[in-house]
Amino acid sequence: MGVTAQAASLVPLGQAVGIQMTTAGVLVADLAEVDTPDGTCTPAKDAGLRPGDVICRMDGREIVSSADFLAALDAAGVQIDKFNFADFIDETVEPLEIADAGHAHNIEIHVPDNIEMEGDQDRLRQLFTNIIANALKHSADNTAVLIEAHENKDFGTIVTNVVNFGSQIPQEARSDIFRRFVKGKTQSS
After folding, report:
1. Are 127 and 133 in contact (CB under 8 A)?
2. Which of 8, 86, 105, 179 is deepest in the core (most CB within 10 A)?
3. The dihedral of CA 73, 75, 76, 79: what is its sign?
């Protein structure tokens, strides 16, 4: 008994269909607090924005792409610069090391020299200063704080981890860590 095989064939029927999904505007992924002389505030939240919203117009300008959004920010006076991320982290850590001198923390930085970033350096410095200062504050004396970053080119992002090896955030408090005015307990030495 023999087996006969036939070559597969494709018979095109109908019209070829392609799907292209595009969204006009820029998706709001998260809202950040801003330090001001009067305290902290969240301007985007105060303006009624929520994560998941899509910004389609800004100051009368139509926003179709991230390039439009950046142009609108430039027009509004937000300073977007391209800069070396490793240098930026070094410059951010330097005053924190000086302030931390009595606690003898070892701040280890593992950030490749070839990562370029675009953003508002002042606001990003505020963010990283707060995160790194918290890592130092909640670490026992003579322990390490690790800062490492890598570029995820598939998503066009820079992934940064700030890790302390001191006390952990209790599981029940983790959902509150980005809420205003929530404070953890300082690690005792």
Report:
1. no
2. 105
3. positive
Bridge partners of 117, per DSSP, are 83
Q: Count CA atoms within 13 Å of residue 51 on its CB side.
A: 4
Rounded to two decimals, the pTM is 0.58
Output the six-digit token pair for 33.
Answer: 């607090």
Rounded distance, CA 120 to CA 130, Å?
16
Per-residue model confidence as pLDDT tens digits over 152-168: 888 888 999 999 887 77
pLDDT of residue 144: 92
* Residues 166/172/174/175 CA torsion (nearest 10 deg): -170
Residue 115 has a CB neighbour count (10 Å cut-off) of 18
- Round to whole Å and give the CA distance between 151 and 147: 14
Looking at residue 22, what is its pLDDT?
A: 55
Distance CA 18, CA 20 (A): 7
